[in-house]
Write a structure and sequence with these properties.
The complex is a heterodimer of chains A (172) and B (625). Chain A is built from seven helices and no strands. Chain A is mostly helical and 172 residues long. Chain A folds into two domains: 7-66, DnaJ domain (Helix Hairpins), CATH 1.10.287.110; 93-171, HscB, C-terminal domain (Monooxygenase, Up-down Bundle). In chain A, helix 2 runs antiparallel to helix 3, helix 5 (93-108) packs parallel to helix 7 (143-171) and helix 6 packs antiparallel against helix 7. The longest helix of chain B is centred in the last third of the chain and has 27 residues, at 533-559. Chain B has 16 helices and 27 strands. Chain B is globular. Chain B is an alpha+beta fold. The chains are: A mainly alpha (172), B alpha+beta (625).
Chain lengths: 172, 625
């Protein structure tokens, strides 16, 4: 076990998309019990420094593993298909049309009911995209295809944030 | 000849002697110190049996100072020199302090104060950090008297919603008070420890903490000794003080009066506070105050008080809603709401919180003491005292950063680096480049807050990176690492990747004290005034050295098999060097030897950590034995 080990090795879980959240949570806590700087508070600065590096590394891995979107992106990257969201924004026309339709609906949404309906639709699209990512990664090892789905999921995540913001505006 | 030590049966002269570690709740209105005694956390009383120390310091002409109850006695008569609620000014500029004009102080905003507001008193200008240090030093003395031994260290609590500048100011105050700070922990988290351990609670809990000057809401998940903060929020300028001020304003308006002099301002506030406290038990109270020479009375009902302060209560509930949203939880998923802070005694708060969550809040712990008790339990564990003496078992805190961290980019925009509610410690690396040929320096402005514009966030510090090797514009790759430690404090490191050169970093905190200022304040002395600084330095170096020796020895006992013979010899030699200088009166020599031992054992520490992690992964099979 090294600081440089990948997230899956560090957490002792199989290197795949499908993960059990409860197991990740439990592993995270087990690992922090061993490495957290609080365990070494009485042991001087050197031990504290090392503990902090480990603790930071464990938190980083946990953040990535527990979030399906980050986990998928990480797996694509490990297999030589980086996401490059900033310079690869080409998406299928149908997907972009859908996005535009949603954006319009969000702007026109005047009440909680309209927003909830939109939110449901987005969540369903997200669940479907995640299922596709799972199949592409765990089933077909199609990393380029999975990376494309991850980029679509990033659009959805951003839109979900805008939905939240709009809800907040209307709530006040 | 050394005397033979004889111990009573059952009290072995353990080399790992119990260390005196305390929890300190440094509050806006009052402060407490607690410690674990015979396995139970309890608050330590002063010589007259009082637990609460008013967080008030009165500065006298010619250098004297009165602290706590003695300072309160003349609060109205000598309002200008009697500093209360200094916590509200920690890490803050004058412009940040809402309602500063209603306070009886003579604020000064000197450029030399590093941006932090100062208070002009009969004994010169005082920083809020110095005022807090007086209170900490008083509590430290109380603890040392109580145990008749030197203090090993303390855990000090801060509001969860304190930003980096406020945390750093608190840490500086501990340093001034000569306290070895084991950890800064968040008040609601401390309360959750005390409550959770007391009630063997498991599941999701909300801690609603309304103190004298700050409001915090934390949502935690409690599982088998792990206290995981899921989300935290609050308002670092909302507390009982604001309820006092709102009530005073309301009454003065009804009376058509105003409070203009420092004495009148202080009198109005104290009358409001007395009225507020009385309304907890009764429905109707007379607000009576002595203003500009005449006595004034006005009847206030509980409903009046509630109406006058409804906006404040709503502000707290808005923060609760935000925290639940951040935690991605609904109110129904919260199993219990723990009430903390003296201000939660107000009936309107208990009702509003109860209605919001749809369940009666938990008030079976003393809201004044619970934070200090939780801090004491954590301090006991951090000091390395065996957990069976603390009753804490094997507790672990996983706390979060309360506010997002970002850096200023082109056009005054904020680029987020660390999002709020991320578990600490955490780190992020970001690559920068130069935009001019031969550029050797780079400035990074770090801000904290949730807004998109720099001007709407709080400026934390400007980091100047120097010593970048001159290259063509855009060729340098400067990797800047932002690390937030377990105290929630930020540090920054930088390295130029193509050359491997470490950049030198110059930190200019926006609202903090510089090292030089701290050194000057240390010279001026606090409760340590009589101590000979030199002797103190030697004692402290010796304590550190002994701590390091003990830690190394126990590490060798546990995991010595990890070392090759040569490595073991090297470490033994370093330990021998430390032992050889231990009795010398030379602090620098002791520190150097200790530092050498620390450096020489770093690789060993890393190996031990690897073993620990491997064991954790194999944990299931070990447990199934």
């Amino acid at each position: 076990m090294q600081l440089q080990s990948d997230d899956f090795e560090l957490f002792g879980v199989p290197r795949r998309f499908a993960q059990e959240r409860a197991q990740l949570d439990a592993r995270w806590k087990d690992l922090q019990r061993q490495a957290h700087p609080d365990r070494f508070a009485a042991e001087g600065a050197a031990a504290q420094r090392v503990a902090m590096q480990w603790s930071v590394r464990i938190n980083e891995a946990y953040q990535r593993l527990k979030d399906p979107l980050k986990r998928a992106a990480y797996l694509c990257e490990l297999h030589g298909a980086p996401i490059r969201a900033e310079d690869n924004t080409a998406m299928p026309a149908a997907f972009l049309m859908q996005q535009m339709a949603w954006r319009e609906a969000l702007e026109e949404a005047g009440g909680a009911a309209a927003i909830d309906a939109l939110d449901d639709e987005v969540q369903q699209a997200r669940a479907a995209a995640l299922a596709r990512v799972g199949a592409l990664i765990d089933g077909q090892q199609d990393w380029a295809g999975a990376a494309q789905q991850v980029r679509a999921l990033m659009f959805l995540a951003r839109f979900a944030q805008d939905v939240d913001r709009r809800r907040e505006q209307l709530g006040q | 000849m050394a005397l033979l030590q004889i111990s009573e049966p059952g009290q072995s002269p353990d080399p790992h002697q119990r260390r005196i570690a305390v929890g300190i709740d440094l509050g806006t209105t009052h402060s407490l110190v607690a410690a674990v005694k015979s396995g139970v956390a309890e608050c330590l009383p002063d010589a007259r049996g009082r637990l609460l120390l008013p967080s008030v310091v009165r500065y006298l002409q010619g250098g004297g100072r009165l602290i706590g109850h003695e300072a309160v006695l003349a609060q109205a008569q000598d309002a200008r020199n009697t500093v209360a609620s200094a916590k509200r000014f920690m890490g803050r500029a004058l412009a940040d302090i809402a309602g500063a004009d209603k306070l009886p102080y003579d604020f000064v905003q000197e450029s030399g104060q590093g941006g932090m507001v100062g208070l002009a008193t009969a004994d010169g200008v005082k920083s809020p950090v110095e005022v807090s240090a007086e209170i900490l030093a008083t509590l430290r003395q109380r603890a040392e008297d109580s145990f008749d031994a030197d203090l090993y260290g303390a855990v000090i609590t801060v509001p969860a919603y304190f930003d980096d500048a406020q945390r750093q100011a608190t840490k500086d105050a501990a340093r001034l008070a000569g306290i070895h700070l084991l950890r800064l922990i968040n008040e609601p988290t401390a309360a959750a420890i005390a409550y959770g351990l007391d009630n063997a609670a498991e599941g999701v809990y909300a801690v609603y903490d309304l103190g004298g000057g700050t409001f915090d809401i934390s949502i935690l998940r409690l599982t088998q000794g792990v206290f995981e903060v899921i989300a935290t929020g609050g308002d670092s300028a909302l507390g009982g003080d604001d309820y006092d001020a709102a009530l005073a304003d309301w009454v003065l308006q009804r009376l058509g009066r105003s409070a203009d002099t420092p004495t009148d301002k202080a009198a109005a506030r104290m009358a409001a506070r007395a009225c507020k406290e009385a309304l907890t038990a009764t429905e109707m109270v007379a607000f009576s105050v002595f203003l500009a020479g005449d006595s004034v009375q006005f009847d206030v009902s509980r409903a009046d008080f509630e109406a006058a302060t409804a906006a404040l209560t709503q502000r707290s509930l808005a923060a609760v809603r935000r925290a639940l949203r951040d935690a991605q939880l609904t109110k129904d998923e919260v199993q219990g709401v723990v009430m903390v802070g003296g201000s939660t005694r107000m009936p309107q708060i208990q009702r509003a919180v109860g209605e919001f969550f749809g369940r009666t809040p938990l008030t079976n712990l003393n809201p004044d003491e619970v934070v200090a008790l939780g801090a004491a339990i954590q301090a006991n564990q951090l000091a390395g005292n065996r957990s069976d003496e603390g009753g804490a078992g094997d507790l672990l805190l996983l706390d979060v950063i309360p506010l997002s961290l970002g850096i200023e980019t082109m056009g005054g925009l904020v680029e987020r680096i660390v999002a709020r509610n991320e578990t600490i410690p955490t780190a992020r690396a970001q690559d920068f480049t130069t935009y001019q040929d031969g550029q050797t320096a780079l400035a990074i402005h770090v801000v904290q807050g949730e807004r998109d514009l720099v001007q709407d966030c709080r400026s934390l510090a400007r980091f100047e990176l120097r010593g970048i090797p001159p290259m063509a514009a855009g060729a340098a790759r400067i990797r800047v690492t932002f690390t937030i430690d377990a105290d929630g404090l930020l540090s920054v490191g930088a390295k130029e990747l193509t050359s491997g050169v470490e950049a030198h970093i110059n930190v200019k905190p926006s609202y903090g004290l510089s090292d030089a200022q701290i050194a000057r304040m240390l010279q001026e002395g606090f409760a340590t005034a009589q101590d000979d600084m030199q002797a103190r330095a030697v004692v402290e170096a010796r304590v550190d050295a002994q701590r390091m020796l003990l830690a190394t020895q126990s590490a060798l006992d546990a995991d010595g098999d990890l070392l090759e013979a040569g490595e073991r010899t090297a470490i033994d030699a370093l330990m021998q060097t430390v032992r050889a200088v231990l009795e010398a009166q030379d602090a620098a020599a002791i520190e150097a030897a200790t530092e050498a031992l620390a450096k020489g054992t770093e690789a060993f520490a890393a190996q031990r950590m690897n073993r620990g992690i491997r064991d954790a992964l194999a944990g299931k099979s070990v447990q199934s034995f």
